[in-house]
Amino acid sequence: MGKVAKCLGIGVKGSIRVMLHRESYAAGDLVQGQLVLRVSRPIECEEFSLHVEGAEAITWSEGANHSLAPCNMRDDFLCDRIQLIEPMPLAFEPGEYRFRFQYQLDDTLPPVFRVTEGFAGAMRDVNASVSYTIKARLSLQGKLVADLKTSHDFAVHRPSLCHPVRSLQKSSSDEVRLLSLMKSKGACEVSACLDSDVHLSGSTLSLQTRISNYSSRDMHNLSVLLYEDLTVELPNRRPSKGTRVVCTQDFPGVAAGQLLDEMLYLPLIDEVNGLPVAPTNSAAFVRWQYRLEVKCRFMLSKSVKVEMPVIIVRNVGAPPVPVDAVVGPPAVVVVVPGEDDDDSAADQQGTMPWSPSQLHIEAEGDSVVARPVFILPQAVAAV
Known about the structure:
Elements: H1 2-8, E1 14-20, E2 24-26, E3 30-39, E4 43-62, E5 69-81, E6 91-92, E7 95-104, E8 113-120, E9 123-140, E10 148-157, E11 168-177, E12 184-194, E13 198-200, E14 204-213, E15 221-232, E16 240-252, E17 259-267, E18 281-282, E19 286-297, E20 304-313, H2 341-350, E21 361-364, E22 367-370, H3 378-381
Parallel strand pairs: 2-10, 13-20
Antiparallel strand pairs: 1-3, 3-7, 4-5, 4-6, 4-9, 8-9, 9-10, 11-12, 12-14, 14-17, 15-16, 15-19, 18-19, 19-20, 21-22
Protein name: Arrestin C-terminal-like domain-containing protein
Organism: Phytophthora nicotianae (strain INRA-310)
GO cellular component, one term: cytoplasm
């Protein structure tokens, strides 16, 4: 069948893919990359397009438990055309061709994120995400000739700017009453102090705490909790809010009549997935914030607690964390079975590292001829 398609000039005649310098960029950065075109049979082009797209999508369910209705909404906030640095010819002979491109990101773009199975008010199974994709399409002449197309996801994060930092101190006291109805057994006072309200995702938060248990009852335990407050705002709807505990750390309670004055620690790791806590974020539909709570629990009595808002920022020094739909897999490539060893070698070369200086396309007369782009040393290629 392949020989028949080749004789008739139909079917798949090559593949394209997008290669980027990096997989993650800050808003305002310059995205640089190459479009790699591999041609297995001569082709003539009708149209070429290269676009960058950014979208926020949200799905949720609402209604009674026995009849939840699925809903969705999408905001395509970015759709721009990308120009190639080198002009693309209209005809290609078999070979590999590379074309450089660059695109300036706006510094107000929202960062990528993904919320899964959240809830906010009456909204259940909230799944929301912001994603960025570069799409390329090369339309070829011929009714039975397959067009070449590909897409490549990349991540955008907020610039690493200095956040204004402030210290926080909160205190609270309350009477300890059995079942909140009986005579007071004394008071409990709790005070917490943070040197900074800004913390790195994945780091360990330290909190200076002072507990004075003036009551006649022993404290059951002492806990430090981080809450995530999720807010969903959709057009023509009231905001929906939901809260969940992201991470918690328990400590021994303070005995009756005793005083505790020490540093407490809370690792900022999400207990649901074991990943660093997602940075404080906001987009068109979804935003989430964090608050820290110190809670003193008494058996059969109301807890005494203090809470304060905190800001979680991205840890630029940490290795990238693979998150579904945030940093996508490599671009989809149409595989063309090779008919000799040269095609196999070209396949291996297409997966190697590259740089803009490795572009090498030569013109001979009116045609464009592909030359070997580069050859890596064997020691490097084996890594």
